[in-house]
Amino acid sequence: MNELYLILYGYIPYAVVIIFLVGIIYRMATWVSAKGLVGLYNANVCLYRDGWGSTTIEVLKRIFIFYTLPGRDKDQSLFIGSFLFHWGIWIALIGHLGIIIPGTYLEEWFGLTPSLHHVIALYVGGTAGTVALLGLLILTIRRITGRTVTVKVMNEYRVYIPLRMFSFLDDYFALAILLAIMIFGLYQTLGITPYNPAYVDVISKWMWSLVTLHPNVEPIMSYPILQVHALLAMIFIAYFPWSKMMHPFSFLFMPTIARPAIKVRVPKVR
Predict the structure, then answer these.
(1) Residues 121-172: pLDDT tens digits?
(2) What is the pLDDT of residues 239-265, one digit of tens each?
(3) For the chain, what are the domain ranges?
(4) pLDDT band per the 50, 70, 90 thresholds, residue 236
(5) Residue 89's CB: how many other CB atoms inside 10 A?
(6) Of the candidates 144, 132, 227, 246, which has an alpha carbon nearest to the alpha carbon of residue 178?
């Protein structure tokens, strides 16, 4: 049994990281070398906006405030769900960095006492996870309730298409595994940590042993909830580069940044 734990939580994490990094590099390389429109390699038509500065600001605005989603004839549930999910998950992921480093090092290097770390993990991490889960639930309900999507053609004609036509097995798989990861993560944050403050140290010892290349799985052998959460997270991380979830990286390779934008001249009306 110990050998199985060592394989699952001591050796496979390294394989997952390799798959993740190689997958991202491979996908980005295919975007750069793509001939024509391939996958997430989008074609954007911008009017005389060739500057790197203005285009980069535009991309950052889309990433962080999702300003193109709300508005008249737009999908409000998509905007609300995306905003809550992405901001919640970003904060939660940043909080995971504090779990990797053991409490003794956090206090020595950053002056973060165990009690303060516990409060941050409980309230900030718990709030961020709850917000992300709420956003993901909105996106999930939106996808499975038969909602229609409005597609504009030439800015004059509107076509209403059921969202289910854009939904495939990989979409539901991603939603299911993300929901499971968040539920198990929140259960640990809000259901275990408040009554067992040392639980964070248990996670840190295991994760730090992986970082230092001396895997030690003994700290987590008595915590099945953590084991399931970690296993689901590893499946998700390995799957990430090969899925639609690579879309954040696609912003870096839009033609409007990687190459000059397509100029469109509007003829003057006489």
Answers:
(1) 889 999 999 999 999 999 998 888 866 666 655 555 566 666 677 778 888 9
(2) 999 988 887 777 666 554 545 545 555
(3) 2-29+49-258
(4) very high
(5) 20
(6) 132
How much is the pTM? 0.81
Only one residue has tokens 């140290």, namely: 201
- pLDDT, residue 44, reads 44
In angstroms, the Cα distances linking 2 to 5, 93, 200 are 5, 29, 22
Instruction: Give me the pLDDT at residue 265, please.
Output: 59
Homologous superfamily (CATH) of 2-29+49-258 is Transmembrane di-heme cytochromes, Chain C (1.20.950.20)
DSSP annotation string for the chain: -HHHHHIIIIIHHHHHHHHHHHHHHHHHHHHHT--SS-TT----B-SS---HHHHHHHHHHHHHT-TTSSSTTS-HHHHHHHHHHHHHHHHHHHHHHHHHS-HHHHHHHH---HHHHHHIIIIIHHHHHHHHHHHHHHHHHHHHTT-EEEEEETTTEEEEEEGGGG--HHHHHHHHHHHHHHHHHHIIIIIITTT-TTHHHHHHHHHHHHHTT----GGGTT-HHHHHHHHHHHHHHHHGGGSGGGHHHHGGG-HHHHSPPBP-PPPPP-
Asked if 252 and 52 count as a contact pair (C-beta separation under 8 A), the reply is no
Tens digit of each residue's pLDDT (9 = 90 or more) over 44-63: 444 444 566 666 677 677 77
Check residue 235 and give its pLDDT: 96
Residue type at position 243: S
CB 253 within 8 A of CB 28: yes
CB atoms within 10 A of CB 156: 6
**CA-wise closest residue to 10 among 201, 230, 268, 248:** 230
